[in-house]
Prior knowledge:
The complex is a heterodimer of chains A (about 400) and B (about 900).
Chain A: H1 2-14, H2 19-31, H3 37-50, H4 59-71, E1 79-80, E2 89-90, H5 92-101, E3 110-114, H6 117-121, H7 123-133, E4 136-137, H8 138-141, E5 142-148, E6 153-158, H9 160-165, H10 170-177, E7 183-189, E8 194-199, H11 205-216, E9 219-221, E10 228-236, E11 239-247, H12 251-256, E12 266-267, H13 270-277, H14 279-296, H15 303-314, H16 334-338, H17 343-353, E13 356-357, H18 362-368
Antiparallel strand pairs in A: 1-2, 3-11, 3-12, 4-9, 5-6, 6-8, 7-8, 10-11
Chain B: E1 17-18, H1 24-30, E2 81-90, H2 95-104, H3 116-132, H4 138-150, E3 164-168, E4 172-176, E5 182-186, H5 188-197, H6 200-205, E6 219-225, E7 234-235, E8 241-242, H7 245-265, H8 270-288, H9 309-313, H10 319-324, E9 332-339, E10 347-351, H11 352-355, E11 359-363, H12 369-378, E12 386-390, E13 396-398, H13 405-411, E14 417-421, E15 427-431, E16 441-449, E17 454-456, H14 461-464, E18 472-476, H15 481-491, E19 498-499, E20 504-505, H16 512-521, E21 526-528, H17 529-538, E22 549-551, H18 552-559, E23 565-568, E24 579-583, E25 586-589, H19 594-597, H20 605-613, H21 615-636, H22 649-674, H23 686-712, H24 718-725, H25 731-738, E26 742-743, E27 745-746, E28 749-750, E29 775-776, H26 786-821, E30 825-826, E31 832-833, E32 839-841, H27 862-878
Parallel strand pairs in B: 9-17, 10-16
Antiparallel strand pairs in B: 2-6, 3-4, 4-5, 7-8, 9-18, 11-14, 12-13, 12-14, 15-16, 15-18, 19-20, 21-22, 23-24, 24-25, 26-29, 27-28, 30-31, 31-32
Amino acid sequence: xxxxxERYRRVMENAGLPPKIVEEALxxxxxxxxEVWGRFVEEVIKDYESRLVEPGEVVGVVxxxxxGEPSTQMTLRTFHYVGIRELNVTLGLPRLIELVDARSKPxxxxxxxxxxxxxxxxxxxxxxxxxxxxxxxxxxxxxxxxIDPFEGQVILYIDLEQAERRDVGLEDIVKALKKxxxxxxxxxxxxxxxxxxxxLEEFSYVKLRQxxxxxxxxxxxxxxGIRRAIVKKRSTGDGIEYYILTEGSNIRAVMKVPGVxxxxxxxxxxxxxxxxxxxxxxxxxxxxxxxGVLREQGLDVDIRHIILLADAMxxxxxxxxxxxxxxxxxxxxxxxxxxxxVVTTHLYNASAxxxxxxxxxxxxxxxxxxxxxxxxxxxxxxxxxxEPRGKQVxx
Amino acid sequence: xxxxxxxxxxxxxxxxxxxxxLSPEMVRKMSVVSLTVPDTYDEDGSPMPFGLMxxxxxxxxxxxRCETCDGxxxxxxxxxxHIELALPVIHVGFTKHIYNALRATCSKCGRITLSDEVIxxxxxxxxxxxxxxxxxxxxxxxxxxxKEAAKATKCPHCGAKKDKVKLEKPTTFYLVDERNKPIKxxxxxxxxxxxxxxxxxxxxxxxFDPEVARPEWMVITVLPVPPISVxxxxxxxxxxxxxxxxxxxxxxxxxTNEKLKSTIEAxxxxxxxxxxxxxxxxxxxxxxxxxxxxxxxAVHRSGRPLKTLAQRLKGKDGRFRNNLSGKRxxxxxxxxxxxxxxxxxxxxxxPVEVAKILTVPEPVTEHNIDxxxxxxxNGPEKYPGANYIIRPDGRAVDLRFVRDREAMAERLxxxxxxxxxxxxxxxxxxxxQPSLHRMSMMAHHVKVLPYKTFRIxxxxxxPYNADFDxxxxxxxxxxxxxxxxxxxxIMRVQEQMLTPRYGGVIVGALHDxxxxxxxxxxxxxxxxxxxxxxxLGMANYKGxxxxxxxxxxxxxxxxxxxxxxxxxxxxxxxxxxxKVVIKEGKLISGVIDHNAIGDQKSKTLLHKIILQExxxxxxxxxxxxxxxxxMFLDMYGFTMGLDEEDLPEDAKKEIKKVIDRHIKKVNEYxxxxxxxxxxxxxxxxxxxxxxxxxxxxxxxxxxxxxxxxERYFLPNNSVLITAKTGARGKMLNLTxxxxxxxxxxIRGERIRRGYLNRTLPHFKPGDLGAEARGFIKSNYKxxxxxxxxxxxxxxxxxxxxxxAVRTSQSGYMQRRLIxxxxxxHVEYDGTVQSAEGFIIQYLYGEDxxxxxxxxxxxxxxxxxxxxxxxxxxxxxxxA
Lengths: 395, 879
């Protein structure tokens, strides 16, 4: 009876039920005997309405408390190995603080890269993708280096075994090194893997050390920023699927790599996601990351609090920090800002500008000793006491 | 006078506050005296006229009267004085603002160095920004105007050459050439003259409000002197008088100012004048802020830096955070807490001593007049009594000094307010710090009890995060009917049993109640009529007792509201008793444990009762159940003995064998590592690989030995019961007591610190073996070996340090979260808005659901509704 379903859909929609709940209700309706449909929908609407938030509720404070209180129970351990021993991930309280701080770079950027078609089924193909994206620097293949301050050169000892494993020949290294300016490169001993880089201009020890740093960070292959990549497998409904986890993040470059399912690429770098995909995506990453941190710590926090936090951080179209440089700085109230941090600066600026504090927020009204217009004080209900005769009590 | 608002809304409220800078004229107008004498008191101790403590600025000494308003101390609010400065000085707080004004304007004509057209355009833009109310754009606008104007090299209005201005911190201004070389020093006088020339219209474009803050007012010519009440002097025990830091500073200023005056009058060379001028600048700068970068702080005779104006406001102990955002209150009490499981969870036991001091203002009506008369007669000493009476004219009468209280009581009538002692049933706010969530402050009903501690039911410990190892808590008595009503409706314990954090119960049965519930409801429990009567009596059961023998499940059912519930027990001691089924308030099968009535869980039996039957019923259920379980446990005699942690010899042997096997495996890994045969795991060094392998091997050793021990425990083992039912502890704790404690870690790694290449001198250098790196084979029952004990202490210390560091970090994070989000609220249209009116969300949480009322986060309880409607047709069919 699809017409009936349609009718009930409209009933629920008109009652203001969010689409998600309507869908779930309809799914359940189909499995129920026809005669209870009406009652069921009636009850669903009643149930939903009984659980709505009260107008005036200070949901911000509730959200802050709901995230702050459990954070006292978190571990302080910076590094943890989440199921994957191979990768270092910042978790727990430090990661949470990093997220609300809106730091421009996470301390441990990570990516989760799903693969397309055959690549997802075949481990060898997946490993090829890894080889392609994993960044390889000259320094990664160098066992030892010497700085020769007399001749003005840097001598590298290449780990041949490692180089072979990573599919790099000595010639490749030499070729890459040739790009370093003002130098000449010699392959001294192909057997032992000794490469000499001569500085062509006037040199000093300091300059040679700078040259050494430059040489070691010359990229041979891979994507900049992807320090490490590993293939992981997970079982799906129909067999095994391979995907890649990386240390370091570079969304734009990774998405272009053949075999990568570009639509599913995820990064934990909120700002990078913001730059590449915009604020809505950044907001989602923020939510997912906070949820992830809390879940990993085994703490149960309602998603609504996290969504509100993320929305407060992002609704201006930019990512704003929780604190004096972000959300608090943008508050209109002088008192609200001064009550948080850097008191005097705010007062000086406010007086030069002739700012007006309208006393609409919580902090301001606490300062002047008045009820703030939220919660039960959204409206002014007061108790009047009268004398029995109906005359007001004088005082 | 006591400010009682019993019966009328406030007449006035503050709508807004405007900030500004005092103009010299304003300062003079406010002032009652011009200070010229740098001293406080003369020889005989009376304030010097025109001195720092001039009587005209008010008085704080009792008996003295203010020469300006004739008020006594307490009545006189104090009056400002002023100092006429011989030469102007820069206000340190406004150097940046002055710098901006100089940068953006012409030194000759005072106009912004932008063409008239540009200025007009900017003016219109600013108007637009102000009109649309987007205050966030203002700062950027001013900065841009200043930056653009500062670029000019010639004034477009008068054609004068424009030099760059340089600010040398803290307060010196120079005109500089292109190479940043000073051309001319700008004295505060020069600066002031320049700023005076800027017209009001231009001033607006660079971020000043000329009505309340002309830029030249930021160069001080007249310094306001705060009244004495702002800087009271204190008399030490020795009779010596000690002045406030501000008074000291003001003394310096007056002295230097007088000196400067006389130097000028004497016609001294400019050099000498400048010297005194600079000194005056220094004193005034440090008077405002004594922690300025680049200048040394002014110090007290003892060498302690003076606490001047900025220091009074700043930081955690400053005016803002300590006195304005948080205030001290009357009608509060604090003492140690201790448990009393026999009071209700929404009660608090209050010592008589406290109840006699805290009072409730009770308006006299014809209904309560007799009772209140008796209280007045009892007076402040005899409980229950009253401490004050407020007469209809608003005067308070202190009953301590009323000799004839009977007569006083007789005079009582409507219009009087009696401040009576705290009595049973009064609502009070109860709080434990740190107040991390709203459940840290809940309303309880008073129960006046003997002895000197606050008593609370241990069931409400989790929301307060309280225990009884010396914790103290605070109690507040509401003083208005509005407060009382709010507390009753939204703050009482039963209203706060559900947490908004995850939509589940935060209070519930714990510890012994859980063990007791299990012991009572398991299959074998049967009680005769006498015992059943005993425990049902505790549960306030009022019905008949028909049977001669009751099962535990039947007894439990008698306190249960009529609900249906299906769930699974946490314990697995008796697998056949795991499936919990409750039909219409009858426990059909399954045992009750943490999963059904525990705290900090959602979708439990208790949660369901609260959601369906309401908070009050939920509280009643929890109270009655807990009392019943308490009685039952007393009868049962639940305890724990050392012998319960004994294992038979066989088990010990088996455990030893397992541990030895794993340690052997560890040694093999080490051998392989030494011989270079160990395969490196991807993404890890060889050492890391070895450590990983060893740790997982040793964890296996601990777990397996625990499994063995578990096999030998009897099902009636007390610790086993507490662990399995969720009453207290985990199985891990039990196996650590009986079998093997396991690996100790520091920063998630095996212990490696200590001596060179070894942890303790008992081991060979370089020993990587299990015992040498903190693996504890022993168990708590038998005791640790000395080296093991040491490792255990190391790990234990790390835990303590971790907790200490974490509290400060998470505390700061929460303060920031609160401060950032505190204005967000739900409007009537369902949107979430900030104080400024920005819309943060169109529908709260994307579904408008209050997490507190949700079922573990779910907006609608579909399962429950389904069950309900299906049941309805069943009933109909049978009828």
